[in-house]
Amino acid sequence: MAEFAVPIFLMISGFYAFSHSDDSCGKIIRRTKRIGLVTLYSITVYFIYSVFIYHKLQVRDYIESLLSFKNILKVIVLHDLDSIHGGPLWFLPALLYCYLFQITIEKYNIHKYAFRLIPILCVSHIIVSIYSDSKYIHWHFKSNFWISGLFWFLVGNYIAYKKARIINNLPKNYLLYFIVFITGLAAVILNLYTPNFSKIAIVIYATFLFLLAIKNSTTNINKAVEFIGDKLSLNIYILHTIIAKVLSTLLNRLDFAQDNIYLVIKPLFVVLISLLISWMIYKIDYYRLLFANKG
Q1: Helices (H), the chain
Q2: What does the pLDDT look like over 93-119, one tens digit per residue?
Q3: Which long-range CB contacts under 8 A does 138-146 form with residues at least 24 apart?
Q4: Cα(115)–Cα(110) distance, rounded to whole angstroms?
Q5: Predicted TM-score of the model (pTM)
Q6: Domain boundaries of the chain, sorted by first residue
Q7: Is 255 left (phi over 0), alpha (psi -120 to 50) or beta?
Q8: CA distances to 143, 171, 179, 223 from 219, in Å
Q9: Residues 6+ apart with CB under 8 A from 170
Q10: What SS3 string covers 162-188?
Q11: What is the CA radius of gyration of the chain?
Q12: Residue environment code for 35-56, b if the CB has 16+ CB neighbours within 10 A, otherwise e
């Protein structure tokens, strides 16, 4: 799922980062600050989790390893946060870099030059991904700002830049659904072989899925789904890995890990618990703001 979900998130961010307003640079700076705070919050949560669960007896040694030159370089360049058991958080520093890149684009009005990078970034993204998957290289070498983040962000940015023209030239919905179905199926099949060429299908699949959503942006699917996507998705993204690890530990102690039903129970419980905790955090923030305004 992460193969197409993260590209969709990045395209959404790139799409809404583009603006024709006079204060476009100011808006991106505010978003950059927000993502910076969210990134620090997420890292802090995972650091506390890692200390108490894995390193509570060697806290000093653990902190020294985190502050080593090699680990800091991995975090800055590859957004590798495995040292705090927060690998999936790579999306946040990658998005932070994307917004910093967008500030430069807006400041110097070089959108057209930035868009010329898309074909180069696309080829790099596909080649590095295929090579990494085929040689079983750590996934952080393909999942970072340089290889994945900037490419997908700029695709979303370009679609916003040419929105009217692109939408007017898109085929009928049924054909878009057909393209999404065929490329999705192709990605699943190609993923079974080595070398793994599924990334080619995923690039087409994710792009057309996003275009399908943009073309039908006024269509409401379900208010509950919209609420989850708008209000809860960020905390679900941040917390789901910790919840999955805690649940695995608990199920192991209860001797459920070897049971076939474990494969069904775990994902369902991770989703439900993540939703519940995210909803509780949303409610706490909602009432805090409500009482603050009344005061």
Answers
A1: 2-17, 24-53, 59-66, 69-78, 91-108, 111-115, 117-135, 150-161, 163-169, 173-190, 198-215, 223-227, 233-253, 262-294
A2: 999 999 999 999 999 999 999 999 999
A3: 138/80, 140/74, 140/78, 140/79, 140/80, 140/82, 140/87, 140/90, 141/78, 143/6, 143/79, 143/90, 143/94, 144/77, 144/78, 144/79, 144/90, 144/94, 145/79, 145/93, 145/94, 145/97, 145/98, 146/77
A4: 9
A5: 0.91
A6: 2-166, 221-295
A7: left
A8: 32, 17, 20, 11
A9: 176, 211, 215
A10: CHHHHHHHCCCHHHHHHHHHHHHHHHH
A11: 21
A12: bbebbeebbebbbebbeeeebe
126-153 pLDDT, tens digit per residue, is 999 999 988 889 999 999 999 999 999 9
Tell me the two tokens of residue 8.
């969709």
Measured CA to CA in angstroms, residue 6 lies from 28, 149, 169, 258 at distances of 20, 9, 26, 31
The residues, any chain, with a CB within 8 Å of residue 4's CB and separated by 6 or more, are: 187, 202, 205, 206, 209
Angle at 90 between CA 85 and CA 92, to 5 degrees: 120
pLDDT(154) > 70: yes
Torsion angle of C-alpha atoms 210, 215, 219, 222, degrees rounded to 10: 0
